[in-house]
Amino acid sequence: MSRYRREWLEGGVFFFTVVTHERRPTLATELGLRCLRYAWRETVSTMPFDTDAVCILPDHLHTVWSLPEGDRDYSARWRKLKGLFTREYRIHGGMEGKRNASRLRSREAAVWQRRYWEHRIRDADDFRRHVNYIHFNPVKHRLVSRVADWEWSSFHDHVKNGWLDPDWGTTEPDDIGNIEVGE
């Protein structure tokens, strides 16, 4: 069995890529978005973290989280968030994928991929590059031609706060080409 190494840093800032099971396009639907908002809110209320950037695409999401000082357990947050989403999604009629023998044995739903990609943000430049990557992702996947046209992104909050220009991302930023994202 593979051994995955996670980097743990109390109060750290982390970039994540989380993917649906078999890349099913469940997230950018009315039900998916409602369940994700609920799960996110509930998780933050009991296990606080700051969402510095996020973009929700049909079959995956990217986000940057800042953990509180003295806390390094992003894994428990993802476990809770994915579990709450899955429960709500199934209760409200969301269809899961086909479960393999391992998922059947562990009574695990086929809504999310089991693992996720994480990267510890090392400095301000690394933070900016990953946030840019997140915001440009819908254009990269050809879901829209302009970053501003993708509704489910923190890009709009960054514009409101004056951190980004509304026309930002009309071309791919030069600094995001070498980012590893686990897609």
Structural write-up:
Helix 1 (30-46) packs across helix 2 (74-91). The protein is an alpha+beta fold and 183 residues long. A four-stranded antiparallel sheet has the order 2-3-1-4, with helices on one face. It has five helices and four strands. A hairpin with a 3-residue loop joins strand 2 (50-56) and strand 3.
Shape, per Cα inertia axes: globular
Output the CATH class name.
Alpha Beta
Q: Which structural class best describes the helix and strand composition? A: alpha+beta
CATH superfamily: Transposase IS200-like
Radius of gyration: 16 Å
Please count the beta strands (DSSP E, at least 2 residues each): 4
**Strand residue content:** 5-15%
Distance between the termini: 21 Å
Which fold name fills CATH's third level, the topology?
Answer: Alpha-Beta Plaits
DSSP summary: helix tally: 5
Helix fraction bin = 25-40%
| Spatial strand sequence of the major β-sheet | 2-3-1-4
Overall mean pLDDT stands at 85
**Proper CATH architecture:** 2-Layer Sandwich
Number of domains: 1
